[in-house]
């Protein structure tokens, strides 16, 4: 599968209308990937949907799926999301016994393997294993809900991964998720992010296509390689 070049804008369907999902998937067809937040009311204090819904989104979406698993026991449940055909599956390091083994399993099945860290989780232990992952997701809010404020204090963490990726000549995708909008995406792009999740900023816009284009242009204008 070939993927769109950076900067990538991935709208989060957490902010879509759950009973009009097919319509809302069409509305974001100009985006790069569709970000699908799976929450189990255990790893995070909110509940969305599971494999049955993600399979229908996979069958319905005009653009590839970027699944973000906010679930416990992800070593057991994560591979199923790759098996149903999601292009990218990102799990939380905090929820896995062995992130490297899980990433290898996801790649074996044919998905891009992503690892995510909550704001309080340091990135350093993962850096030596960077080549095992296709994406690193730096959360810029506490996971669980859309519409929260962007944590600018995460930019140091993002710069740390970005510098290490550059040192290794890696083309790992650096993703940010939480509070991304015009006014915050610039900082994330400048700190090295190349893949941007936006929920409320996209679905809350009057002109959804226009907002996706605006975010992409702002990211492009502020991105730089360290
Ligand atoms: C939050 C989710 C995000 C959420 C972002 O835990 O992982 O993907 O949809 O929403 P906004 O862009 O509104 O902060
Ligand atoms: Zn997410």
Account of the 3D structure:
With 226 residues, this protein is an alpha/beta fold. It has one domain: TIM Barrel (Alpha-Beta Barrel). Helix content is 36%, strand content 18%. Strands 1-8-7-6-5-4-3-2 form an 8-stranded parallel sheet. Helix 3 (74-83) runs parallel beside helix 4. It starts with 7 loop residues before the first strand and ends with a helix. Zinc ion binds at residues 12, 35, 37, 68, 177, 197. Residues 12, 35, 37, 68, 177, 197 line the site of zinc ion (ZN).
Amino-to-carboxy terminus distance: 28 Å
**Secondary structure tally: strands:** 8
Uncertain stretches of 5 or more adjacent residues: none
Overall body shape: globular
Ions, cofactors and other ligands present here are: D-xylitol-5-phosphate, zinc ion
Number of folding domains? Answer: 1
What is the strand content?
15-25%
If helices are DSSP runs of H or I spanning 4 or more residues, what is the number of helices? Answer: 9
Order of helices and strands: EHEHEHEHEHEHEHEHH
CATH architecture, by name, is Alpha-Beta Barrel
Radius of gyration: 16 Å
CATH superfamily: Aldolase class I
Helix content: 25-40%
* Oligomerization status of the protein chains: single chain
Mean pLDDT: 97
Given this structure, which CATH class is correct? Alpha Beta
The SS-based structural class is alpha/beta
Strand order of the largest sheet: 1-8-7-6-5-4-3-2
CATH third-tier fold name: TIM Barrel
Largest sheet: 8 strands, parallel
